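Sharing a chain and its predicted structure for anyone who wants a worked example. Both blocks are below, sequence first, C-alpha cells second.
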Amino acid sequence: MTMMSATTTDSFSPPVAHKGPTGFFSSRFGEALGIVLGLCALTLAIALLSFHPDDVSWSVSARTDQRHNAVGVVGANLADVLFQGLGLLAYGLPVLLGWHAVQVFRGKALLVSAEQATGICGVLLSLAGFLSLFQELPLFYDRIRLGGFIGFAIEKWLESALNPVGTGLLLSGTAVLSLMLATTFSPRRWLLRWWQELPLRRVKPAPETNDHPATAMTNGVHPLSSTRQRAKPNAATPSPETTEDKGRDEQRIAEALYGDEAPGIVSPVKRTPHGTPAVDLETPATPPATAAPADAPPSEPPNHPLPDAPPAAPPVPAAVSSQPQPEPSRSTVSEVRRLAREAIERRNSGNNPLVRDKDRDRNGSPAEVSAARRRLAAAEQQLTANAEQEVAKMVQAVHIVRRQPTPPTSAPAVPAGVPAAGQRPVSMGAAAAAPARSSAEPAYALPTVEMLTPAPPQTSQSDEELRARARLLAEKCREFNVIGEILEIEPGPVVTTFGFKPDPGVKYSRVAGLVDDLCLGLQAESVRIDRIPGKATIGIEVPNARRDTIYLREIIESDVFRDNSGRLPIALGKTINGEPYATDLARMPHLLIAGSTGSGKSVMINSLICSILFKSTANDVRLIMVDPKRVELELYAGIPHLLTPIITDPKRAANALNWAVGEMENRYKLLASVGVRNIEGFNRAVTEAPDPTRFPDGPPPRLPYIVIIIDELADLMMVASNEVETAIARLAQMARAVGIHLVIATQRPSVDVITGLIKANFPARISFRVSSKVDSRTILDTNGAEQLLGQGDMLFSPGSSRLIRIHGAYVSETEINRITDFLKQQGAPQYDESVQMSEEEVEAAEAGVGERDALYDEAVRIVVQMGKASTSVLQRRLRIGYGRAAAILDMMEREGFIGPIDGSRPRVVKQAAYDYVEMLDGHALMPEDDE
C-alpha cells in the first residue's frame, strides 16, 4: 500500500481518497465497481437489520421453517457470524463499506496505509472489548453479547489481571491511540487550539470602522463552505494541483471575510522559490499586465463610483453581482470571530508562510487581526442597522384605534315593573305581611346622578407617544427572537393594548413567556399577555404612564347601564379599551370576589351596592349585609333596603344564612302553590290581573329580591365553617329561581376559605390583584391575577373560560353619604327580627316566652347599671353563653326595656328598664358613666 500524503485538518477524518490513474477508476469499470460495492453494503445492512436469532445458521439448528431474515439463508448466516464475532460493532461494517463504494464511484482510488489499517483494527478490537464489560445488557434474548465472542475473549483475558475498572481504562486508551493511527485526529492540536482561543475572548472591536457595512454574508459564499486548510512548515511539498486548490480555498476565505473588498486586500497566490504559496494580505490585486512587485508598498484600490450610483454605495465584485443578496444575520459576527481566531492561531504559530513579517504591527499581531476587528465592528453596525429595519417593518402597519367617549345620558328612571310605593316587601319567614302604606304617601324616588361626582377630563396619549411605545415593544420582542407585526394600538384609561400578530411558526406560548422580560424592558409594573377573541392577534397590555380614574357616574350615565333590562344591574367599570361595562347579578346568579388588601375590593362592593340602589326600590330588593370588620358597610346603616341591621357577629351571620335557606324553601313552596317556576313569574301573577280562583283570599304581596353581601368570608369560616359552608352551598345551588343572590368577598383566597364546595357553585368570579399565582388559580382557575395593577384593576370571569379585564369604578364616602341620606328620607327600614335569631330563639319567640330566664332580673340590673345592653357584657358578668345572653336581650327588647340592634353600637337602655329595676329594689337607680 502507498502512504497517502498527510493533510492538516481541525478534526479527525476517515482515510482520504485521492484521484487515481485516469485509466482505471475514472472509467465505466470504476462506476460499476462502486455500484457493486454499494449493493453489497445495502445487502449487508438489510441482513443485519432483519436478523433473528431463531433463523437457521451455522450456530443455530433448525427449530422452525419460518424465515425471518430478508436476505434468506445467506443473510442469516452472514449476520449470525458478524453478530457472534463483533456484537453491536457489526452495524458499522455496512457503513464503512458504503463509504468506500461512494469514493470508488466518484473515481477516486482509496489508498490506506498499514498504519491506518492497524488503527482501524485496534479501534474495532478495543470497542468490542469495552462493550463486553456490560455483561448485563445482552442482545437477542440473551444469546449474543454486546461485543461478540471476540470482545468477550479480550475482556476476560484483561479482566483476570486488571479487574473491570482497569480493563475499561486500558481499552479506552487503546481506542484513542488507535483512532490517532486511523485518522489525523491529534489531542495535542485540539488542546492547543482551545488554549489559543482564550486571548480572543478578551479582544474587543477596535474603535476604527469602515465607511461601509461588512458584507461577509452578502457575497453569496458562506464561510463554512470553504475548506479551512493551513500550510504546515514541515509538511511535504504539495503538488501543483493541490497548491492551486489551496490557493482557491484561501481566496474563498478572504472573500467570505472581507466581502467585496477581497480583490483589494488579498493578492493572488504567488510562489516562492521553494514552491510555497505566499499571500500578501494587504497588497491590492492588480491585473497581471500591471501587477505591482511583491515588495511594493500597499496602495488604496481605486474607487470611482458611477455618476448615477449613490456616493456611499461600495463597489460590487462582478463575480457576485448577479447573485441575490441575502440579509446579514447573527451568524455574521460569529463567523468574523471565528476567522479572527484563526488569524491569532497563525500569529501564535510564528512560522506560518502565509503571514509575512511586514504584515505584523508594532504589537506583534498580524494585519488579519486588525482587519478582523474592523470587520467585526462593521458587522455589528450592519447587524444593528438590520435590526432597526426589522423593527421598523414590525410597526409599519400599525394604526391607532381610539374609542369615542360615551356621552352622558339622563338619570335612570324607575323600572316599568316597579309596584306602588305603598307595598312593602315582607319575608316569608315572618309569616305575616306588613301593613301597606296609604295612597296619600309620596311615591318612592330613586337617587339621581347629581349625587355622584362628575368625572374630570380624561388625559390622552399622543400618537407619537403610542408609536414610540410600540417601537420599543417591537425591539424587545425582536431581542428575544419573537418576530411579528404590531397591527393596532388601543389606548385605554389604565392600560394600552398592542395587537401583536406573530409570524408563522411563532407559538403563542412563546409570546406569553415574555411577560417578565417585557416588564423589565419596558420598565412597566406589570405586563399581561392574552389572546384577543375574534382576532388573529395577541393582546399585550402595557400600563399607561398616566393613569386615569374611572368614576361611578360615568358608568351610571352610560347607555350600557341605563338600557340594562336586568333585575339587579351592577356597574363594574370600564374595559381596557375604555368602554363602560355593566352586567346583571340576577343572571350570574352569585358572585365571588377576592383580592389582597388595597386592591380595590371594598370600593367595588360599594359600587355594586350603589348600582342596585340607583335602579331598585326597597320594594324590589332587600339587603342583608354581613360586615365582620364593622367599618366597611356601616355607611349603609338605616337605609330602607335593609332586611335586618348590619350583622357584625359571625355567629349571627351564620344564623342569617340559615334563615335564608329556610326562606328559600318557603318561597319554593309558595311558587309551587301558585304554579310558577321563578320569582319573575310569581310577581307577574300577583301584579298583572291576578286570577281570583288562584288567590281566593286576595293576591299576596310581591316577593322582593334578596341580596346577601358578605364582606369577609374568612372570618365566618374561622368561627362557624361547617354551618356557613353548608348554607352557602345550598343557597348557591338553589336560590337563584326564588330571587336570593349571594355576593361574597374575601381578601384571603385560600383553599380553606374558598373551599371546593363553595367554588363549584360560583361560576361568576372577580379577582383583584393577589399575591401569588396559587391564589389566582384558586379564584380563577388560571394565572393572571397576580399581574394586575391594583386600585380597582380586576379580572372578571362571567361564567366562561374567557376572562374580561375591567377597571373598577370609584365611588367616595361622600358620594355614598349623599345617596344614603337621600334614601333614609324615603322611610325607615322594616327589619325582620327572625333573620339573626337561631332556631332556639325563634321557637322561644313563637311560644311567647312564657317562662322568664332565672337570670333575667339580674341581667336587667346589669344593663341599667352599665347604661348599655350588649351580649358581651352579659356573658362576662353573668358567665353565660352567647345564645342565652342574646335570648335575654331579645326578651328585654320585646318588653320595651332596650332598643333594637343598631349595627355595631350597643343597644339603648330605655326608661322602662329603670322603672322596672326601681320597682324591684324599691329605690331609684341612675346609670353609671361609661368610661
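Comments welcome. The two ends are 118 Å apart (CA to CA).
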